[in-house]
Each structure stands twice: as structure tokens, then as C-alpha cells.
Amino acid sequence: MGKTIFVSIPCFMDDSELFNTILSCFSNAKNPKNIKMGIAFIGDPIFYNNIKEKFEKFNNIKMQYYDFKNNYGVAKSRILARSMYAQEDYFLQIDAHALFEYGWDEYLINKFEKAKKEIKRE
User: Fold this and answer.
1) Could you say which DSSP state residue 5 is in?
2) Is 35 within 8 Å of 108 (Cβ atoms)?
3) What is the 3-state secondary structure of 29-96?
4) Contacts of 82 by beta carbon, 8 Å cutoff, 6+ apart
5) Cβ atoms within 10 Å of 122's Cβ, excluding its own
6) What is the pLDDT of residues 4-26, one digit of tens each?
């Protein structure tokens, strides 16, 4: 098994691109089994339930709903999404409306490892 990437996604209210973001992330990864995802939903329980129903069969996606009245907005949802990180090898924070090119996972890992070598931070 290769290196794992945790993709952290805050979702505030009902971001209409989240569904496409999730599909794009997994379908464009060269190693989709190595992708783990955490999504923090804030504010719209109906939207959360719709997305959860579509993706609940994916065991590499963690989702959690948080009531709007108990948080402070998008910054808080970033913290909540990050809290689902489980020691994967890499961490990627994105917004709920991002698209991925094919091979994005290998590309980012290679770029990161090359940067570490260049600055001598093995």
C-alpha cells in the first residue's frame, strides 16, 4: 500500500459543488484507495443527509454534521474537518468546490518530497 493522503473539506451550508469535488478527488487519483477524506458540514442538515446517503458506502470518507448555532462559520468548520485526520502520511486542506486533474495525488506527493530534499528536510 502506498502513501495515504487525508483530504480535509469544510462545507458551510449547502455548497452545490461538494458532490463534484468528492467525485473528482477519487476518480482522478491514481491511487484512490490511498485517499481518506473528512468532511465537516455546518448549517444544512438536509444537504448533509443527501450527501451522506450518496457516499455512506465509501469507508474512506468520514462525515460529520454540526449545527450552525454552535459554531462560528467556515474557520470553525476547517478545524472540525481537520479533527478527522487519522495520521495519514499527507494532509491536504481544500474547499468544498475544488476539482482535481488526473494523477493529482502522485503529483502532490512527488512535489512535496522533492521540496523536502531541496531544503534538506528529510
Assistant:
1) E
2) no
3) CCCHHHEEEEEEEECCHHHHHHHHHHHCCCCCEEEEEECHHHCCCHHHHHHHHHCCCCCCCEEEECCC
4) 8, 38, 91, 93
5) 6
6) 999 999 998 888 899 999 999 99
Which sign does the torsion angle of CA 63, 64, 69, 70 carry? negative
Paired with 7 in beta bridges are 37, 92
Distance, CA of 31 to chain centre: 15
The answer to whether 8 and 76 are in contact (CB under 8 A) is no
Q: What is the pLDDT of residue 34?
A: 98
> What secondary structure letter does DSSP report for 12?
E
The pLDDT tens digits for 63-104 are 999 887 766 677 888 999 999 999 999 999 999 999 999 999
pLDDT band at 1 (very low <50, low <70, confident <90, very high): low
Write down the pLDDT at residue 71. Answer: 64
Sorted by sequence, the CB contacts under 8 Å of residue 106 that are 6+ apart come out as: 30, 31
Q: Which amino acid is at 85?
A: Y
C-alpha cell at 69: 448555532
